[in-house]
Here is the input.
Amino acid sequence: MKIAFVGSHGVGKTALCYGLAAHLKKIDVSVGLVQEVARDCPMPINRDTTLHAQAWILHTQIAREIAATERSKAVICDRSVLDNYAYLVHRVGRRKEYDPLIQDWLKSYSLLVKVPIWQPPRFDGVRALDLSFQREIDAEVEALLSLWKPPVMRLKPGDRDRWVEQVVTELGLPLVPPQVDLFEDDGAADRP
Here is the structure.
């Protein structure tokens, strides 16, 4: 099972990743987390990104997803190849050489979860704070989702307090950990 939270920057994908990972651990599912790759990029990102920077991000995303999938039953991704590609498209346009890779890799996700813009980006030392840039990237993500039509769960801004619960339900997983009755009567008290 591989779940990716997609959308623009500053919408809460990272918090959702950690919330879902914590829930999966509570129900005894081993979890691998693929953190946002762009933060590790040695080249410019945000509005100053380049084709080489975005190529590095895309390929690193795929490599980290492969590694996490080998180690864990469930993998949660803070971004997917689709929204990483949206930043490339925004900067340099669609690239014919990348389209087939992105389309094929989209099939590897069990669930894509689109996180909407519900607040302007906040300063974290890396993320761009320009609200218009946040909206432009969201529009690129939406255009790519419309183009390739992968199955996607869409979260609503007004339901933020229930987002993790909604994703767990969509995955068909229990909302509460199964309880083991430590005092279950197995007939031992009746034995001499």
Remarks:
- The chain has six helices and five strands.
- The CA atoms of residues 23 and 175 lie 8 Å apart.
- The mean pLDDT is 93.
- The radius of gyration is 19 Å.
